[in-house]
Amino acid sequence: MRITIKGVPPSLNQTAGRQNVWAYRTNKKVWTDTVYFACMNAKDRPKEPFAFALVRIDYYFNSARRHDADNYSGKYLLDGLTKAGVILDDDLAHIATAIHGHVDRKNPRTEITILEVPKLD
Q1: Do the domain assignments include residue 121?
Q2: Among the four 17, 39, 58, 61, which has the fewest Cβ within 10 Å?
C-alpha cells in the first residue's frame, strides 16, 4: 500500500518539548488525521491490519538543507496508520521502518509505503 501526502510534517525539534506542547498536539492531530483519511480513501488499503509490516517513509523536502533522520521519525504518520487499521500497532513488535530524504523544490510531499512482511526472529 502506498499513500502520498502534500507537504512534510514539522521536525520533532519544532514541536517536541514542554514549551511547544500545543504546537505538538496540533501538528500530531493534523498529520495523524491526514494519514488516517488518506488510508481510508486508498484503493489498496488492506481489509485487516498487517501483523508485521515494513513502513518506508520518503520525505521530499523543498530544500537541500540538512535534515536529521531522528527528527523525522514518522511518529505522527505511524499513529495515523494504526488509527486507520493498516498496521496492527506501531511498536517494534509489529513494524520496521526505513526513512529516506529527497529534494523536490516544486512538489514537497511525504510518501508512505507499507508492505506486509514476515517477522524475522
Answers
A1: no
A2: 17
Q: Is the pLDDT of residue 21 over 80?
A: no
Q: How many domains does the chain have?
A: 1
pLDDT at residue 55 is higher than 90: yes
| Short-list 55, 51, 52, 67, CA closest to 103 | 67
pTM above 0.85, yes or no: yes
Distance separating alpha carbons of residues 31 and 52, to the nearest angstrom: 22
Widest CA span in the chain: 42
Q: What is the CATH number of the domain that holds 52?
A: 3.30.1330.70
For residue 44, the 8-state DSSP code is T
**What is the number of alpha carbons within 13 Å of residue 42 lying toward its C-beta?**
24
